[in-house]
């Protein structure tokens, strides 16, 4: 006997049952007037289902507001009250990016020294910003990012600026408008300055750039790059041009990767409108130095005046404009020389 017995199959009949008297027969080539195509059941899409289940709310028409009002909304959500962001070079003893946030009051480094370390959770509890709006849509993200990175970014050192810029894309760096390295550069960081400032090359839209560390002549003061011979008979104008050209050389030595791009995009006059180096010497003029009765101090740099006429010459806005113009022209000349 087979292991698997045959199943009993029913008898299949293909005979046509003509017993229905009222049944109508449709032959080939004829049409049935009563026949209608069966309607297909509409398939409900997932989008329609989501819309049906979505709670009915009155959404705020943000994108219908004028651009000025939208910017106010972005500023309220993304910006700090004083529109200043301080980024230091401090670190945590534990290997964690979110372990500590270094915060300080405005200009605390120069005044009260009121610094405080707070944990990341404490920082989130006290923060006034809300970045959730950046995830709304691409249009809102594009508008809000310009407001976020248009704030004043103040760095404790160029090392802190390097850490910040390394995490940003070139498109984001291009949104920066205000960069302020307000502390002096440590001795070990000078040799890395060109590499650090190369990260700033996409920031062609900067409106303010201060590098407090560039405040003296780290190489040597070349008295042969002026328009007049260096000596007792040198005019005040010739002296100012000589000092300005040496300042430009000092700046270009440490910042040439950025200066090559900035001078090309903004021009000599444009770069001098945003550049702030050597303290306030380019705006308020030199002060009396410590080397003697003939010493002039330009921020941290002290130079001996060739004559008493230059030493006692009053500072005027015309002298300030002439020095800035001479410095910008020298930066443009150095950038053009390297482009060959």
UniProtKB/TrEMBL annotation:
<feature type="region of interest" description="Disordered">
    <location>
        <begin position="23"/>
        <end position="53"/>
    </location>
</feature>
<feature type="domain" description="DUF7730">
    <location>
        <begin position="62"/>
        <end position="180"/>
    </location>
</feature>
<dbReference type="Pfam" id="PF24864">
    <property type="entry name" value="DUF7730"/>
</dbReference>
<dbReference type="InterPro" id="IPR038883">
    <property type="entry name" value="AN11006-like"/>
</dbReference>
<feature type="compositionally biased region" description="Basic residues">
    <location>
        <begin position="37"/>
        <end position="53"/>
    </location>
</feature>
<protein>
    <recommendedName>
        <fullName>DUF7730 domain-containing protein</fullName>
    </recommendedName>
</protein>
<dbReference type="InterPro" id="IPR056632">
    <property type="entry name" value="DUF7730"/>
</dbReference>
């Amino acid at each position: 006997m087979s292991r698997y017995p045959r199943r009993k199959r029913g008898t299949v009949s293909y005979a046509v049952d003509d017993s229905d008297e009222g049944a109508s027969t449709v032959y080939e080539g004829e049409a049935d007037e009563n026949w209608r195509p069966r309607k297909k059941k509409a398939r409900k899409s997932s989008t329609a289902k989501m819309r049906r289940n979505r709670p009915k709310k009155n959404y705020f028409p943000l994108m219908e507001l004028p651009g000025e009002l939208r910017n106010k909304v972005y500023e309220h959500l993304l910006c700090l009250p004083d529109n200043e962001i301080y980024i230091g070079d401090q670190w945590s003893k534990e290997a964690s990016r979110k372990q500590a946030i270094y915060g300080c009051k405005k200009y605390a480094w120069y005044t009260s020294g009121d610094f405080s370390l707070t944990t990341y959770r404490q920082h989130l509890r006290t923060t006034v910003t809300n970045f959730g709006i950046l995830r709304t849509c691409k249009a809102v993200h594009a508008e809000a990012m310009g407001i976020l990175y248009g704030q004043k970014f103040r760095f404790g050192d160029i090392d802190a600026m390097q850490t910040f810029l390394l995490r940003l894309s070139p498109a984001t760096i291009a949104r920066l408008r205000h960069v302020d390295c307000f502390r002096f550069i440590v001795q070990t960081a000078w040799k890395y300055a060109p590499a650090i400032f190369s990260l700033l090359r996409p920031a062609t839209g900067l409106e303010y750039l201060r590098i407090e560390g560039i405040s003296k002549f780290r190489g040597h003061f070349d008295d042969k790059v002026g328009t007049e011979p260096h000596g007792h008979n040198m005019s005040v104008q010739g002296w100012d041009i000589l000092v300005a050209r040496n300042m430009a050389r000092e700046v270009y030595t440490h910042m040439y990767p950025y200066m090559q791009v900035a001078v090309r995009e903004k021009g000599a006059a444009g770069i001098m409108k945003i550049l702030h180096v050597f303290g306030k010497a380019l705006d308020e003029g030199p002060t009396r130095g410590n080397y003697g009765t003939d010493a002039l101090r330009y921020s941290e740099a002290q130079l001996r005046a060739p004559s008493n006429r230059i030493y006692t010459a009053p500072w005027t806005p015309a002298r300030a404009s002439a020095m800035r113009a001479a410095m910008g022209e020298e930066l443009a000349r150095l950038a053009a020389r390297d482009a060959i």
